[in-house]
Structure formats: structure tokens, C-alpha cells
Design brief:
It is a single chain. Helix content is 0%, strand content 58%. It has no helices and eleven strands. Strands 2, 4, 5, 6, 9, 10 and 11 form a seven-stranded mixed beta sheet that branches. The chain has a four-stranded antiparallel beta sheet with strand order 1-3-8-7, with no helix packed on it.
């Protein structure tokens, strides 16, 4: 069984910063990509950022230059540093991990429960 637990969300004023963390635990053989997604009220879940096991990153255009994704492979943890936050960044942020639970299993996606980020104007 695998669990992803996010933390670090909260209420911040526009222009402020937050750092999200997500720890993967349980029966994990290897983790491939780790990513962050978000879902604003009334909208579909959207991609925010992704990082491979080797450290390559990619970002949604809306967050480029403001957000930074990183990971600590030894701790099975992914981070999202969010700077210059805007009201439109308000959403529930979800952690995603593409991982294997055993030598003979295939990679599959796991999701955290989400953490709320609210940016006031």
C-alpha cells in the first residue's frame, strides 16, 4: 500500500511564498516521475510541474519563473516552492507519483489527498 501526504498549504497574500511538501510512503520499489497538479473551484485539475528521477523538470506556462519543483530521492519527497503567488494560484494542490511497488510490477500513478492554497488579493 502506498500513501502520498501533502503539507505546507495555507493562506498567503498576493506576492507571498509557500513551500509544499509531499512524502511518499509504503511499499515502494522505485519512483519515476513526481509531479504537482492543482484544481481550482469549478475547474478541471491541471498540471503544474513535474520532475523526473534524474532531476529534469517541466512547468506549466502559468507558473514558469515563479514555481520550482525539487525532490529528495532518499526521502521519497517532492517539493514545490511557490513564489510571487497570485490570486489565480488559489486551488487545491495534489501530489502525484509514478512508481512501482515491486520488481515485477509496472509503474502506476498514485495521488495525495491535496492541500489547500489560498492567495488573497
Amino acid at each position: 500500500q502506498v500513501q502520498l501526504v501533502e503539507s505546507g498549504g495555507g493562506l498567503v497574500q498576493a506576492g507571498g511564498s509557500l513551500r509544499l511538501s509531499c512524502i511518499a510512503s509504503g511499499t515502494i520499489f522505485s519512483i519515476n516521475n513526481m509531479a504537482w497538479y492543482r484544481q481550482a473551484p469549478g475547474k478541471q485539475r491541471e498540471f503544474v510541474a513535474i520532475i523526473t528521477s534524474g532531476g529534469a523538470t517541466n512547468y506549466a506556462d502559468s507558473v514558469k519563473g515563479r514555481f520550482t519543483i525539487s525532490r529528495d530521492n532518499a526521502k521519497n519527497t517532492v517539493y514545490l516552492q511557490m513564489n510571487s503567488l497570485k490570486p489565480e494560484d488559489t486551488a487545491i494542490y495534489y501530489c502525484n507519483a509514478h512508481l512501482r511497488t515491486g520488481w515485477t510490477t509496472s509503474n502506476r500513478d498514485y495521488w495525495g489527498q491535496g492541500t489547500q492554497v489560498t492567495v488573497s488579493s
